[in-house]
Amino acid sequence: MTPHLAGLWLGFGLCAALVGLAGPALSRNGEIISARTNLSGGWIGLILVASITSLPELSTGISAVSLADAPDTAVGDVFGSCIFNLAILIVLDFMLREESVYRRVRQGHILSSAFGILLIGFAGLTLALHGEGLAVSLFGIGGSTPIIFLLYGLGARAIFIYEQQDQALHPPMAREAGIPLAEALRAYAGAAALVVAAGSALPFVAVALAGAMGWQQTFVGTLLVAAVTSLPELVVSIVAARIGAVDLAMANILGSNMFNMLVLGIDDLFYRHGPILDHASPIHVVSAMSCVVMSGLLIAGLLYRPQNRLFRTVGWISFGLFAMYLLNAYVLFLYGAR
Questions:
Q1: Which of 54, 64, 265, 270 could anchor a disulfide with 74, C-beta 3.0 to 4.6 Å?
Q2: Which residue ranges make up each domain of the chain?
Q3: pTM for this structure?
Q4: Could you please report the per-residue DSSP string of 259-271?
């Protein structure tokens, strides 16, 4: 390995470490903010925690399209992060030995799962239409971007109303009674700044690494960059599960997937060479459809609430999620890494 290549991998690892360090602070302070503001853990996880843990995707995407001129990296990061987020459920299911994660969380997460499918499916359909030259553009941005913003707003409002109605049955619990709201917000802001710093540098490292390794940006963005930018979701979810806030972990995962589609629209606004999906590889449709299938498996798990585990590890829902993750990675390696 040449010194240049070793330096690139070192930079990539440093970005991953910085992003991962912010995770525990986001999880702990998210629970405190939930209790202090009298909002449900599901709503805090869906909006506040999810928007912060998705900051790497946002900063990476804006940096990729406006500075590094790497739209494929930005689009691959968005869809790849959604897949990685859903794969985090496998880890949570393995961690919770007493019962399946799909039995532990509230069925109300089906609503956010459905809006995630709506947003991801619509983005995937739009990408396919762009590939066939059938999509509409308006003032240099994709015609789908305003619709994505609208769908996200409608979803957030619908989930907020649902959480308000459900809050009486599942009131927020203060797990860190001695920490005031102002201190929690300051810690939250510090963790967010760390995430933004690492996310802004990541596209440059990823593009250089792709060139040095002879890989396409599609492969690097969807698998490598997405894995790093999803580290906050992974760390937050693990920490939340350990402190008993499993609903916060689930809401964070599903909220991040919704927010990732919002990031796709924001990336389109910052891209200066026309609609971003016009310059993205059609192979990303595979990732979008993989997300839809994985989200469908999650909804099945939330409704069926299986208890049995395969080989005393995870349930069949998690096994299906793992199979889809591997299939998507294999297809991208075959067609996106060359």
A1: 64
A2: 3-336
A3: 0.83
A4: HHHHHHHHHHHH-
